[in-house]
Design a protein that fits this description.
By secondary structure, this protein is mainly α. It is built from 2 helices and no strands.
Length: about 250
């Protein structure tokens, strides 16, 4: 009967030990799953934070660029407004002088036209008293002089036209060359800006990635250190219990 009792006791102990082993394995697996989920969340937090901060930085660069462009345009608008006022004042001054010149020239012309009309009337009256043949000869000579004068005037006007157009063509040619040169410089400046801007973005991204990767390792070290600080007292307490258990 003693043997049977001892056997039953051993069987009970083995059964209880098996149950404890099962429970221990369940808790160990649960702990590992929780730790894995915690580590995944920690890693995801850092990675998603890195992505979000990269987007924030990109948007901030766009905002800064727009603000800078807006400030430049605002300054240009101020300059244009000043230029408009200056042009308006200059135009009014030229217009006033032109009106004065026109009015003076108009009065002078009217005075001379009136004098010319009187002379023409007087001349016609005199011509009526003269020999028609001699009158026509005189008129022909006068017309010849007018024709010659008109020819000279025509050539002079043509020369003035050619001179003025040559001057303007030279100005246009120079400005076209300057415009072409300015376009090349502007395009090169734009390409340099885009290149440097891309370098800034890439440098910040690579620097941020390097720091985040190291920060992830650092946080793991900090957590592992904290875990050790937490588990060492528990291990010491557990060892104390086990030592007393072994003495019994």
């Amino acid at each position: 009967s003693k043997c049977i009792g001892k056997l039953l006791q051993n069987t009970t102990m083995v059964s209880e030990l098996d149950q404890l082993k099962v429970k221990h394995e369940e808790l160990r697996l649960e702990k590992r799953a929780i730790d894995r989920e915690t580590e995944d969340t920690r890693t995801k937090t850092i990675e998603d934070k890195r992505v979000a901060e990269a987007e924030i930085e990109k948007i901030q660069l766009d905002v800064d660029s727009m603000k800078e462009e807006c400030a430049e345009l605002a300054q240009k608008n101020k300059n244009l407004e000043c230029q408009i006022k200056s042009l308006q004042a200059e135009h009014e001054e030229k217009k006033k002088k032109q009106e004065e010149d026109y009015d003076n020239q108009r009065r002078s012309k009217q005075k001379l036209q009136f004098q010319e009309a009187k002379l023409c009337t007087k001349k016609v009256n005199i011509e009526k008293k003269c020999d028609p043949v001699e009158v026509h000869k005189l008129q022909i000579e006068e017309l010849k002089k007018e024709v010659e004068f008109n020819k000279n005037e025509r050539e002079e006007v043509k020369k003035i036209y050619e001179t003025e157009m040559n001057k303007l063509d030279n100005v246009i040619s120079k400005l076209k060359f300057q415009k072409k040169t300015a376009e090349k410089k502007l395009q090169a400046a734009k390409e340099d800006f885009l290149k440097n801007n891309a370098n800034v973005i890439n440098l910040r991204a690579s620097s941020r990635k390097e720091l985040y990767d190291k920060d992830l390792l650092l946080q793991r070290l900090v957590l592992d250190t904290a875990r050790c600080e937490r588990t060492i007292p528990d291990l010491e307490a557990s060892m104390f219990v086990l030592e007393n258990m072994g003495k019994k």
